[in-house]
Design a protein that fits this description.
CATH architecture of the largest domain in chain A: Up-down Bundle
Number of helices of chain A: 11
Strand order of the largest sheet of chain A: 6-4-5-7
Radius of gyration of chain A: 25 Å
Largest interface: A-B, 39 and 39 residues
Shape of chain A: elongated
CATH superfamily of the largest domain in chain A: Ferritin, core subunit, four-helix bundle
Number of strands of chain A: 7
Strand content of chain A: 5-15%
CATH topology of the largest domain in chain A: Ferritin
Distance between the termini of chain A: 64 Å
Oligomer: homodimer
DNA sequence: CTAGGTGCAAATAATTTGCAGAGGC
DNA sequence: GCCTCTGCAAATTATTTGCACCTAG
């Protein structure tokens, strides 16, 4: 997503010599956006340096795949295509059968289902391929939508990241408002109220950021989604809110909150880390960080509550466990 | 899934002559279980008739793919593999990178997410490829699990179909019990009660069938899942139950029920039709049929309720619409 | 008898490899 | 100077095609 290319000199086969030609192949490859076939890359390389042989391109490509710099994808054309793994985390494809162009998407929902399936089969999952083949909008309507440039791709990614963060924030806010109403312990209630307040404030910040992003590109809101993170992010707090309903006590409410924040934190951290330095990555990681802070606060409060309850019990009469220990 | 092979004589290129050799290739192919490469098929064909050339096998394979008899799958080995489309509906793969064997699964949850994504991108989706590559249980543990024979595959499929049907039945039962408690109109309540009763009865039948199936193969319950239909089937009624909570009137309750039954009916019909004649298919289609009956009952009741309400209103004072029409 | 089907061998296409020479360290 | 990288051409692998012959309708 970001424009800054990785340091070429640090990328070379382990225990190997530096090679100008390999660097050139790599450099040409990394500057490309789409999914190149080995031949496409050959041609492009020849424009800059006709003295580079096919075999070198093939060999470099092989090394790049092994080193995780490139990914080999097969769209069933009888030849492989390659895409940069830098600035493109693991993602899935929509492949047009007519124009052979392909666009990308990312769905954490699908990813988690795949994980579930693999573990149900005791299968140690590595990479997954998800491809939808069909006919793209352009081929059906005849209108040629220009491909998104780097900055726009960045913005779409940031937009989606913000949307997900906002949705999570909203459901978090609902969760804490509910929790604060249900909590009887004044200190616990205060914690939930404070968290709800924080979520509200942060929600405002995110929404402001979203509005600013829209100001940069008026078509931004109508551009197709890149990140499909429907359930995974929002479901966490929604599930928590649901559990809150059924006569839970303060301690349970805190535990549910802890579970939600932990899930949410892990989710945003995990996905944030998958992206190269970019606005979207920043949004995810900042969010993960905020969730971590909340998580710590909740854990502290949970411990304090248990302590206070223990003291209270022992003040009146010894607890069941204490009595059993005697 | 079923053992009965399709009629070979009815399968031939449109406007083409009959050919013994093509029939033989086809017949050998359809008798196989796994994913054959063109060469594998050649070798197998040569065992029965060494006088059949490579080209014929390739040409037959091409025709089979075009005619929808076979599906071409690419596991990234540099050569294509082919699987019979008969007795195997569209499905996804887990591919072991070590032993190169692949096992199959079906997930309606993933399918519906894929549909959603395609439509969000205005992409007319055709086929989808979902592959998880990794290391299978056998390769990790060293224990060689024998591949499932036809009868067992059948049973696993029937087991999964029953599990899904039972889960749906359960959530349907919960939905109708709830609805019957919430409904004020005595006739409407009676309908919901009757449906709840029917669900309960049918649930019993399904559970009995499940127990019978387990009796045939004591390991059946522990065999890996083939159908991953987590959300799609159960979510329908669960969503309906949730909506029921918030002070809905009788008419709305009926409408929610109609929506649930319609979704459920369509779901089971759609997936049932994807399978060749088999116990699993029967379970799905029978279930779809039951849901259709419920759907019709609910629609009749909804109409009757509206009519009664209209009469009631016009008996007391003309309805808003009737007054406006004057 | 004739259009389509078939085997064989040759063509194509993508990718890999052997090898002699070039170039980094 | 050693060892790896590189270009070229030849090899390999998967699949398709041309063509003379065969066979079903």
């Amino acid at each position: 997503m970001a424009r800054n290319l990785p340091d070429l000199s640090s990328l070379r086969p382990a225990g190997s010599k530096h090679s100008t030609k390999r660097d050139r192949v790599l450099s040409v490859f990394l500057r490309q956006e789409g999914h190149l076939s080995a031949d496409d890359l050959c041609d492009l390389v020849h424009l800059e340096d006709p003295g580079i042989g096919r075999a070198t391109v093939y060999r470099t490509l092989q090394w790049m795949v092994g080193a995780g710099i490139a990914r080999k994808v097969n769209f069933g054309e009888g030849r492989a295509r390659f895409e940069p793994a830098y600035r493109h985390p693991r993602h899935f494809h929509l492949v047009c059968a007519e124009c052979r162009r392909s666009s990308e998407f990312l769905s954490s929902d699908i990813e988690s289902l795949l994980e579930e399936i693999a573990s149900a089969r005791n299968f140690q999952a590595g990479q997954a391929v998800v491809q939808i083949s069909g006919v793209c909008e352009d081929c059906r309507t005849g209108v040629k939508t220009p491909p998104l440039d780097g900055t726009t791709t960045e913005r779409v990614f940031a937009r989606d990241a913000l949307r997900i963060a906002i949705a999570t924030e909203r459901s978090g806010l609902e969760f804490y408002s509910r929790a604060s109403k249900l909590t009887t312990d004044p200190r616990g209630r205060e914690v939930f109220e404070r968290l709800a307040e924080e979520e509200k404030e942060h929600l405002g910040t995110l929404e402001k950021r979203y509005a600013e992003l829209l100001a940069d590109d008026e078509q931004l809101e109508s551009r197709p989604t890149f990140l499909f993170f429907k359930g995974a992010a929002n479901g966490i707090f929604a599930e928590g809110s649901e559990k809150l309903g059924k006569g839970v006590d303060d301690q349970q409410a805190l535990l549910i909150g802890i579970k939600c924040e932990r899930g949410s934190h892990q989710f945003f951290k995990r996905y944030g880390e998958r992206f190269e330095d970019s606005e979207g990555r920043r949004i995810f990681l900042e969010f993960a960080d905020e969730e971590r802070t909340h998580l710590e606060l909740l854990i502290r409060e949970y411990r304090s509550l248990r302590e206070r309850q223990a003291t209270e019990r022992s003040g009146r009469r010894p607890s069941a466990r204490a009595r059993a220990a005697r």
